[in-house]
Specification:
By secondary structure, the protein is mainly α. It has helices spanning about 1-10, 15-30, 35-55, 60-80, 85-115, 115-120, 125-130. The longest helix is centred in the C-terminal third of the chain and has 30 residues, at about 85-115. The radius of gyration is 21 Å and the shape is elongated. It starts with a helix and ends in a 10-residue tail after the last helix.
Length: about 140
């Protein structure tokens, strides 16, 4: 984006279209600055931190980070295939949300099957979620 910004700021009004296309092709040919793993981890960590800022507990933050990392992987894969940006963001957001909800529901179901209501009442709420479930992470 920074290269495109510089291109737009510095292009002369009399630049031929062929030259502008050549410069844009050059910008597009650059490799991403961060590899897939670093990018996925950074997105997951950022979303986990955002979940924490929204008063999410430890479990919610972990699940949000995992789901966001998955969504970021979907986004990178779709972007590499030059898919429509709107479709990319909708699909990545949907995939991350589904992963979060499935993991949260699975964890909540497991906790309720393994532990009795009395035991669950003694476990801190950041582990067992509130009565409405692990909703902050979404």
């Amino acid at each position: 984006l920074d290269r495109l910004r510089l291109f737009i700021q510095n292009i002369k009004p009399d630049t031929p279209v062929s030259e502008a296309n050549r410069l844009m092709d050059r910008i597009e040919s650059y490799n991403p600055e961060f590899n897939k793993i670093a990018n996925t981890l950074a997105a997951g960590f950022a979303c986990a931190c955002f979940c924490f800022l929204n008063r999410g507990g430890l479990i919610e933050c972990i699940l949000a980070g995992l789901a966001a990392g998955f969504g970021q992987s979907v986004r990178r894969m779709m972007m590499s295939k030059k898919t429509n940006h709107f479709a990319v963001w909708m699909t990545a957001g949907f995939a991350a949300s589904v992963v979060y909800i499935c993991c949260a529901e699975l964890l909540e179901t497991c906790l309720r099957r393994v532990y009795s209501s009395a035991v669950l009442a003694t476990i801190p709420p950041w582990v067992t979620a509130d009565p409405l479930g692990f909703r902050v992470g979404v």
